[in-house]
């Protein structure tokens, strides 16, 4: 189920099957992005989709009720129209989904007992009509969310749809047969027969004088006369043919019919109302048993770059419409239901104003629906480059380096070995000078000298630092590890600590705990975590008495 928000065509709603329930997505046809994404909390399938506008309270009902004299003045200030989508459910309820709120704002229930077939809004958004498989038609008050009237059909099938006239005085119901109802008296004005299968779509013309219908597994579009001067038996004025079975139907304000076939092509028939009524007046249609068919005035197809495959058109609607003149633009949704592409197509020749007989568009068919192919090369290059992983880095400590030995006989060194040349100046440095500089720096700030060695080591390297400190018996490195107070770092380090280093760690940390009681809070945190993580291993060790406090 998919549909444009005709006549604007700025939004496109589509219902697809999710993992365990139906999913509604609303696309912006200008950008191709998803504006709204909704799935019912309950596992109720959506059975129909309909666009409309309803009046909502701008302040969510928090405004006090004004006096009767000021009520009309306050309505325009506190209320506004909101674009909504009506979704029929399998359980017989109807939910009204607001695009502005991104949630359900109204629920119509209690009248239908079987799945909803169709739903239509009135123009003012105050009323609506629904039909269901229980053979009932219900007139709803959308403001109060209750039933105004209800009547039952005498139809041959439970699958039927409805269509509201533009003046909102008549209603069409269509199953195997079509019935035209007077909404004031709830009486049948006309009945039409002609389709052999279940009717899937029916619409009024702009002046409500004719209606157009299509049916399942049927490639004919039937035109019916809806005027009240021919008795109760409806008249079939004409039939239009497609290359394949018809799937969807639409009509412009200038009475141009748009139909999409199951092959994915778009078919246009111009000036349907005037041609059909002219044919009916020129001959006695009541006595005429056969009538001529008519082929499309314009066929729009979309093919891929190679010209071998047809890219199906999912849905289409007229845009930039005028009352009595065809502007010649339709908006189409093509491609996949996962990520459809939208395009505005002109079907009228700009020079002479005539319909283009056949319009073939060559478009690129994406290989991946959710992949931006413009950046595909950059993404492939990025995928080949391996990202930096700190867990695979070997941390080098001071135990990995050997202290350089100073030659015994310094006099054997040449002048080039113990002289640094900087431009024209020479600076002579002896080993005694280096020792004195290191001793002075360490004496001045001993903690800074220790921390500066390891200040670049962090994150996942803490476990490797601890292992190296225990392996090399490096007290400075071990104390640096114990200074970490982040619970996540302590937990991760304790979990990754090999079991053979657990007892050496406890021996060393208990000794540190005795030497530095002031740091006992941090050290005790390390002891607790290591005991909790490695308790199973420690219980198997016989020489465990030394850790009992």
From TrEMBL:
Q: Name one GO biological process term.
A: maturation of SSU-rRNA from tricistronic rRNA transcript (SSU-rRNA, 5.8S rRNA, LSU-rRNA)
Q: Give yes or no: UniProt keyword Nucleus.
A: yes
Q: Which Pfam families match?
A: Utp12, WD40
| Keywords of the record | Nucleus, WD repeat
Give the top-rank taxon of the lineage listed in the UniProt record for this protein. Answer: Eukaryota
Small-subunit processome Utp12 domain segment(s): 473-540
Q: Where are the WD repeats?
A: 109-150
Is Nucleus among this UniProt entry's keywords?
A: yes
> InterPro entries this protein is in?
SSU_processome_Utp12 (IPR007148), U3_snoRNA-assoc_WDR (IPR052414), WD40/YVTN_repeat-like_dom_sf (IPR015943), WD40_repeat_dom_sf (IPR036322), WD40_rpt (IPR001680)
Location in or out of the cell: Nucleus
Q: Name one GO cellular component term.
A: nucleolus
Similarity-based family: Belongs to the UTP5 family.
Q: What is this protein called?
A: 4730_t:CDS:1
């Amino acid at each position: 189920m998919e549909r444009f928000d005709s006549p604007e065509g700025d939004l496109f709603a589509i219902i697809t099957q999710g993992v365990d329930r139906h999913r509604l997505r609303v696309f912006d046809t200008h950008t191709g992005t998803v504006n709204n994404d909704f799935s019912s909390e309950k596992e109720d399938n959506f059975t129909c989709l309909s666009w409309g506008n309803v009046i909502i309270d701008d302040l969510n009902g928090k405004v006090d009720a004004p006096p009767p004299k000021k009520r009309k003045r306050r309505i325009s200030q506190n209320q506004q129209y909101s674009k909504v989508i009506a979704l029929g459910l399998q359980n017989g309820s109807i939910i009204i989904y607001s695009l502005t709120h991104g949630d359900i704002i109204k629920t119509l229930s209690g009248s239908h007992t079987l799945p909803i077939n169709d739903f239509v809004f009135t123009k003012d958004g105050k009323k609506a009509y629904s039909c269901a498989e229980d053979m009932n038609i219900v007139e709803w008050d959308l403001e109060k969310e209750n039933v105004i009237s209800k009547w039952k059909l005498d139809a041959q099938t439970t699958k039927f749809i409805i269509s509201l006239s533009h003046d909102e005085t008549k209603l069409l119901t269509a199953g195997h047969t079509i019935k035209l109802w007077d909404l004031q008296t709830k009486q049948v004005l006309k009945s039409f027969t002609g389709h052999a299968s279940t009717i899937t779509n029916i619409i009024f013309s702009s002046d409500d004088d004719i209606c157009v219908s299509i049916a399942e597994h049927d490639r004919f579009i039937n035109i019916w006369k809806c005027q009240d001067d021919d008795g109760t038996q409806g008249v079939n004025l004409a039939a239009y043919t497609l290359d394949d079975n018809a799937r969807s139907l639409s009509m412009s304000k200038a009475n141009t019919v748009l139909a999409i076939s199951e092959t994915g092509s778009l078919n246009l028939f111009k000036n349907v109302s005037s041609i059909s009524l002219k044919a009916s007046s020129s001959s006695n249609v009541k006595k005429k048993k056969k009538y001529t068919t008519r082929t499309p005035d314009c066929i729009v197809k979309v093919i891929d770059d190679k010209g071998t495959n047809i890219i199906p058109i999912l849905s289409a609607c007229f845009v930039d419409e005028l009352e009595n003149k065809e502007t010649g633009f339709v908006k189409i949704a093509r491609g996949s239901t996962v990520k459809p592409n939208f395009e505005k197509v002109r079907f009228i020749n700009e020079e002479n104003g005539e319909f283009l007989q056949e319009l073939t568009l060559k478009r690129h068919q994406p290989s991946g629906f959710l992949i931006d192919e413009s950046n595909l090369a950059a993404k492939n290059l990025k995928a080949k480059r391996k990202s930096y992983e700190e867990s695979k880095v070997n941390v080098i400590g001071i135990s990995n380096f050997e202290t350089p030995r100073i030659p015994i006989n310094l006099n054997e060194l040449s002048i080039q070995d113990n002289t640094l040349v900087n431009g024209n100046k020479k600076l002579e440095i002896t080993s005694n000078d280096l020792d004195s500089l290191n001793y002075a720096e360490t004496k001045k700030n001993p903690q800074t000298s220790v921390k500066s060695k390891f200040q670049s080591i962090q994150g996942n390297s803490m476990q490797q630092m601890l292992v190296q400190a225990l392996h090399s018996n490096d007290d400075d490195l071990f104390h640096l590890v114990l200074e970490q107070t982040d619970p996540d770092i302590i937990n991760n380090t304790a979990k990754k600590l090999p079991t053979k280093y657990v007892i050496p760690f406890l021996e060393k940390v208990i000794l540190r705990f005795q030497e530095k009681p002031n740091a006992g809070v941090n050290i005790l945190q390390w002891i607790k975590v290591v005991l909790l993580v490695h308790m199973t291993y420690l219980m198997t060790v016989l020489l465990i008495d030394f850790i009992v406090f």
